[in-house]
């Protein structure tokens, strides 16, 4: 570099704006470092930042702007403890989840042979995953030190498959004379992929399409939880109803209206609780689905779910209609009404008898006592006789409702367990999916924590999180040829799995998008002789999701900074996606710009986040300096070469492979887009 740009290296994390001084240019880099050592920013060294970032490497530059001012640029690359701590937390959660699922299906009643076989499949499946995950967690816990970094050379290690490869936070602070610093950040990590299982049969997208079972019936975690609640209710409430019914028959002999009314009130309360619990749309829909599935397996395995009513279910499978459940719980209510009406009539009759048998002066006392005794015995016997058939009917109706509800909710729990386990495909595919999700999640959480911490005092950003969630924009530089096509298929599924709501208190939605443009020599082969449809599909689908997110942001928060410029960027992105142009990296630039505009999380990946990622990150930083901070055009290429030759990404290469050389050959670089080529002497 010429005298217009200097670079220095420091190990601290604060930048202080320098006044113009007379220090000779050749000593100015070390002067910057000395100044930085004595000016540590409180926020940068807060406990939260230390929890997210570690092992920081810093490079400091001065670059000239169009108006001959000097930009002070600080480039910081940091490892993160989340590389290992978050996968360990996820493994623990998965172990607990599958252990809980085993317990849930084991607690189900005795099942008929066909359904018991399915339960056995779920238990075996979960136990296999628990064993594998426990072994992996133990290996991670037994690491001798507290690591923050998994090098590219260990991406195939079996026990490190949940750990992201080469995960770093890359941050840049830009300070112009007379102004405060502005931060930009991108998370870099190796594409979330299962290198241990490798890619002989493709990646997750292809494997899932081959092995994942499509079920006509599936239930969410919330529905399974609701089903377990209902199973508890149908286990607890009937004994209370039956107890109250027995007591009703017992007190009917006492001819005590107050006591009788007390028991009736208790019976009515317990029965109404039972009816309220069963009058649930989940029970109704599950019964319909259950009987439909019973019909499909009858004749082969027997359609009954529970052993106690297997034969009845086989008949119901052919005759069941959707209104039958409504009639079932309505019969319980009608039975209760009949008991209440009979009790009222009996008490009214008793009241009339008492009035008629009141003492009459003209009648003898002996005759009166004789009549009263006869009527009392007759009345007691009459009450029990008339209430007994109604109580029996109530019991029968409750038992029928319990039988149907237990079958329906057992079906929901078992079907939910099957959907979450066996239906996902062989255990190795589920392990692969969990592993690549762990890698992607670790990177997103790192970026999310930094983004939230930096925006805690920004009410617009906090409102954006609450209203529309946060955008996670993944940039990939993988080819669609050979093994890297499988890596992209893994990455596609892992990014899609991230589009969920982060819970624990309030909800924050993560809208994840993935844009991929292969830039190396293998992509040239794919475009000429192979197939790049995977890349086209991924980019097109992500473009649609990005558009939907931007429209939601514009509709709900129209006055948020940067929102008004999104329409032009969306149009430019659409045009770039439609253009049939080889290695159209403009797609990545536009998507990255939009991510910065909406305060999203930027993530960049290639195979190992080492060489191609270095080219992308340094280019993005220089484009930001040029577009946002008027970096001189004549110094643009020099700044780019400076960052690639002496910046943080070269340090990343050295820590991964022990050499300060990018893994490119001069022949390979001929196929790269021009701006993605490193300076001479830095590759080979």
Work out the strand percent.
5-15%
Helix content: 55-70%
How is the largest sheet built, in terms of strand order? 1-2-3-4-5-9-6-8-7
Largest sheet: 9 strands, mixed
Q: Which class best fits the helix and strand makeup?
A: alpha/beta
List the helices and strands and how they pair.
Blueprint: E1 6-10, H1 25-37, H2 47-52, E2 54-64, E3 70-79, H3 82-106, H4 113-141, E4 168-175, E5 182-188, H5 204-211, H6 221-251, H7 257-278, H8 281-297, H9 310-319, H10 324-356, H11 365-420, H12 427-454, H13 459-467, E6 470-476, H14 483-498, E7 501-502, E8 508-516, H15 521-529, H16 533-556, H17 566-578, H18 586-597, E9 601-605, H19 612-629, H20 633-646, H21 648-657, H22 666-669
Parallel strand pairs: 5-9, 6-8, 6-9
Antiparallel strand pairs: 1-2, 2-3, 3-4, 4-5, 7-8
Structure description:
The protein is α/β, with parallel strands linked by helices and about 675 residues long. The chain folds into three domains: about 80-145; about 150-200 and about 435-675, no CATH class; about 215-290 and about 330-345 and about 385-425, Up-down Bundle (Four Helix Bundle (Hemerythrin (Met), subunit A)). Helices cover about 60% and strands about 10% of the residues. It starts with 5 loop residues before the first strand and ends in a 15-residue tail after the last helix.
């Amino acid at each position: 570099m010429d005298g217009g740009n200097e670079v220095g290296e420091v190990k601290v994390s604060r930048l202080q704006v320098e006044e113009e001084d007379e220090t000779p240019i050749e000593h100015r880099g070390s002067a910057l470092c000395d100044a930085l050592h004595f000016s540590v920013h409180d926020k940068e060294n807060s406990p939260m930042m230390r929890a997210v970032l570690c092992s920081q490497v810093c490079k400091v530059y001065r670059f000239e702007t169009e108006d001959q001012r000097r930009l002070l640029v600080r480039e910081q690359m940091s490892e993160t403890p989340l590389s290992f701590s978050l996968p360990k937390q996820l493994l623990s959660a998965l172990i607990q989840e599958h252990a809980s699922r085993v317990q849930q299906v084991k607690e189900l009643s005795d099942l008929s042979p066909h359904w018991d076989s399915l339960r056995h499949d779920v238990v075996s499946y979960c136990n296999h995953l628990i064993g594998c995950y426990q072994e992996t967690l133990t290996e991670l816990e037994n690491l001798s030190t507290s690591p923050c970094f998994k090098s590219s050379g260990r991406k195939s290690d079996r026990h490190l498959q949940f750990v992201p490869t080469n995960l770093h936070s890359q941050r840049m602070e830009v300070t112009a004379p007379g102004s405060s610093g502005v931060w930009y950040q991108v998370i870099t990590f190796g594409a979330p992929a299962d290198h241990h299982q490798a890619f002989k049969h493709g990646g997750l997208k292809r494997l899932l399409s081959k092995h994942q079972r499509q079920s006509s019936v599936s239930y969410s975690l919330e529905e399974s939880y609701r089903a377990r609640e209902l199973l508890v209710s149908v286990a607890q409430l009937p004994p209370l109803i039956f107890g109250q019914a027995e007591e009703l028959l017992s007190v009917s002999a006492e001819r005590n209206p107050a006591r009788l009314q007390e028991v009736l009130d208790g019976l009515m309360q317990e029965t109404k609780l039972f009816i309220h619990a069963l009058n649930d749309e989940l029970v109704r829909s599950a019964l319909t689905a259950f009987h439909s599935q019973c019909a499909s397996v009858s004749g082969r395995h027997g359609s009954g779910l529970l052993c106690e009513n297997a034969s009845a279910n086989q008949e119901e499978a052919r005759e069941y209609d959707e209104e039958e459940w409504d009639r079932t719980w309505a019969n319980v209510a009608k039975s209760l009404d009949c008991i209440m009406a009979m009790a009222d009539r009996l008490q009214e009759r008793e009241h009339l008898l008492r009035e008629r048998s009141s003492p009459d002066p003209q009648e003898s006392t002996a005759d009166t006592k004789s009549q009263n005794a006869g009527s009392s015995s007759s009345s007691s016997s009459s009450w029990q006789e008339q209430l007994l058939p109604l109580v029996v009917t109530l019991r029968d109706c409750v038992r029928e409702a319990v039988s149907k509800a237990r079958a329906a909710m057992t079906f929901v729990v078992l079907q939910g367990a099957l959907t979450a386990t066996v239906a996902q495909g062989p255990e190795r595919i589920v392990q692969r999916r969990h592993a690549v999700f762990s890698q992607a999640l670790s990177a997103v959480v790192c970026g999310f924590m930094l983004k939230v911490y930096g925006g805690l005092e920004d009410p617009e950003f906090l409102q954006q999180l609450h209203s529309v969630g946060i955008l996670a924009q993944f940039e990939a530089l993988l080819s669609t040829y050979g093994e890297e096509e499988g890596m992209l298929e893994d990455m596609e599924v892992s990014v899609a799995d991230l589009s969920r709501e982060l819970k624990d208190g309030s909800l924050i939605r993560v809208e994840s998008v993935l844009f991929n443009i292969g830039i190396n020599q293998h992509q040239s082969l794919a475009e000429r002789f192979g197939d790049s449809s995977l890349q086209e599909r991924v980019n097109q689908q992500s473009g649609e999701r990005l558009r939907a997110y931007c429209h939601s942001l514009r509709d709900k928060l129209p006055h948020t900074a940067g929102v008004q410029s999104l329409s032009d960027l969306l149009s430019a992105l659409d045009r770039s996606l439609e253009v049939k142009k080889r290695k159209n990296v403009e797609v990545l630039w536009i998507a990255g710009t939009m991510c910065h505009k909406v305060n999203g999380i930027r993530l960049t990946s290639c195979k190992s986040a080492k060489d191609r990622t270095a080219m992308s990150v340094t280019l993005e930083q220089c484009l930001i300096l040029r577009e946002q901070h008027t970096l001189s055009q004549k110094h643009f290429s020099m700044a780019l070469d400076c960052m690639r030759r002496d910046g943080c990404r070269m340090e990343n290469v050295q820590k991964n492979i022990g050499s300060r050389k990018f893994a490119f050959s001069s022949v390979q670089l001929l196929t790269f887009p021009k701006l993605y080529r490193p300076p001479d002497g830095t590759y080979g």
